[in-house]
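Q: what sequence does this backbone want?
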């Protein structure tokens, strides 16, 4: 099934997700730089990367919801899409709470703010894999002949000769 929301023939959600993924990841990288260097400069950059990542995630999400609504009910794709979207909502909540905790002193976030963002980043690995599974394995959003019940890419396939 092809995406319901396209721009110049390409799925909008897949085009936009690069921004929040990249920006939130850079926030984590700059947090590690701040920890390693013990410099608030990098932590402040992390704060602004996270703010930008949250904004772009809110822009990408509605297009993902539009595509999710078009997935047939009762399929593996619908379940994967639900986990992908719900997990990403949790990612945004975790990063959002981290960002709020940083507002008063962006150059000196406390441990709780960092744990929240690091947890969000770890969860993103799983939700990103699910998104890749939806597009690459199941063809959701990119292939009119998609198989919304194809087996997981983690399944071992046997080739018969």
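A:
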């Amino acid at each position: 099934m092809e995406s319901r929301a396209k721009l110049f023939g390409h799925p909008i959600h897949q085009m936009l997700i690069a921004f929040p993924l990249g920006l939130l990841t850079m926030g984590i990288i700059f947090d590690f730089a701040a920890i390693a260097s013990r410099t608030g400069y990098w932590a402040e950059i992390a704060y602004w990367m996270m703010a930008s990542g949250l904004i772009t995630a809110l822009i990408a999400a509605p297009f993902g919801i539009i595509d999710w609504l078009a997935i047939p009910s009762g399929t593996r794709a619908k379940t994967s899409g639900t986990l992908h979207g719900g997990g990403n909502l949790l990612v945004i909540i975790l990063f959002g709470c981290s960002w709020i905790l940083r507002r008063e002193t962006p150059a000196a976030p406390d441990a709780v703010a960092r744990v929240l963002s690091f947890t969000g980043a770890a969860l993103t690995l799983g939700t990103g894999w699910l998104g890749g599974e939806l597009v690459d394995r199941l063809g959701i959003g990119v292939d009119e002949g998609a198989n919304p019940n194809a087996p997981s890419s983690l399944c071992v396939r046997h080739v018969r000769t």
